[in-house]
Design brief:
The chain is α/β, with parallel strands linked by helices and 168 residues long. It is 36% helix and 23% strand. The longest helix has 16 residues. The protein is globular and about 40 Å long.
């Protein structure tokens, strides 16, 4: 819960010397995994994809990151049933108002990825798991690309699973 303000402070300093156009700022909202302590494994997962929550979270991220807008705002782990007409309408209004340039979805679910492929007009970018040991996403990546969607590779470093003695 402290990453955005810390990153915002660093970005603020970097923007002074490099300009705002030197960075692409992306964040996500909707699913939160809270951990009580750094080395504990108990997790509390909460989800909220209501239009009001998504817009409020986006505005809070802009404030935290000290930006005028977000380049990419992603819905994190949204299931297909939560992609409503009201949410899509709100996302379009947010884009029109200039608080976000692009909307994305972050998912590992093949059903949700199929929905995005079938409805490429809703999102601009997809963040999915793709790395040295998860290359089975290549056909999905090809389909997303054919539909004009940007693809971001998540878990590119395999979440540390290739490193002996990884904690967590």
């Amino acid at each position: 819960y402290n990453a955005e303000p810390r990153l915002g402070k660093a970005l603020h300093e970097l923007k002074k010397s490099h300009g705002c156009d030197s960075f692409i700022v992306s964040t996500k909202a909707g699913t939160t995994v809270a951990r009580s302590r750094i080395l504990r494994t108990d997790k509390q997962v909460t989800t909220n994809f209501t239009p009001d929550y998504i817009e409020q979270t986006c505005l809070k991220s802009i404030q935290n990151l000290r930006c005028d807008y977000l380049d990419i705002f992603q819905l994190h782990g949204i299931p297909v049933h939560a992609i409503s007409v009201d949410l899509i309408t709100r996302l379009q209004k947010m884009k029109q108002s200039g608080i976000c340039r692009y909307f994305g979805i972050n998912t590992h679910d093949l059903g949700t990825l199929a929905f995005v492929i079938d409805n490429p007009e809703i999102f601009d970018v997809v963040l999915l798991d793709y790395n040295a040991i998860q290359q089975d996403r290549e056909p999905v990546i090809e389909q997303l690309s054919l539909h004009g969607l940007g693809v971001l590779a998540g878990t590119a470093l395999v979440q540390g699973h290739l490193i002996d003695g990884k904690i967590g």
